[in-house]
Amino acid sequence: MQPSMIPLCVPFERRAEVAARGAVFDREEKCWVVVRDTAVGFEAFLPYRYRADRTAPYIRPWMVPQSLWGHNLRALLAKEDWDRIRKDTYARAGSRCRVCGGRGPKWAVEADEGWAYDDTRRIQTLKGVIALCPDCHAVRHWGKTMTEGRSEQALDWMVEINGWTRDQARQCADEAMALWHRRSDHTDWQCDITWAVRNYGVTPLEVGTRAARELNRKFVAQAQARFDARPDRRDDLDHHITHK
Ligand SMILES: [Zn+2]
To answer: How far is the CA of 105 from the centre of ligand 1 (A)?
Structure first.
């Protein structure tokens, strides 16, 4: 794609609308694009990094406290309900990343749950689900990315998307880790997925919380094993993963 062009997130049913406004379909990229200087009027379709009403950081680590690992829609809902939500998420974004407009080489986008944290009442509340490319998703799930030894690439991606220096990206990741440690000190976090109930009419599974707890134990064990296997292990995750 030419640097002067911007990718758009266009749901299939709105393609005629963007074509009428002057967007063109880039066959090679499999993507609707618009000339950067003529993007006015396309606000609803612009990835966050190109929107005038948003400022950097467009992507940063956003980590789930350890006691809530596994408490995601995939575990808490019936498979068909989660599939409906994530497929709708991909469709609404035209299978492009909502943050950068990109797509992955193997699969285009992944569904990312956006959580808000009430640090006083210790409630993690679902605010929405968005489509992210694998690179942006790896930044969001920083802890997993780090234990898999992919943090350098994720830092590079933050530099690229946010227009940051390497030091700024590192500082942001360090702050996210510190926040994660503070939140993970507590084991009484609750998870609120009312958003999915309200927007998709789903009913959380009765067995969902138990399944999530089992997943939590599995994820913690996996993270610990990956962490222990790292040749360059640091103390970042050690405090929680190896001593709880
Ligand atoms: Zn992206």
So the answer is: 12
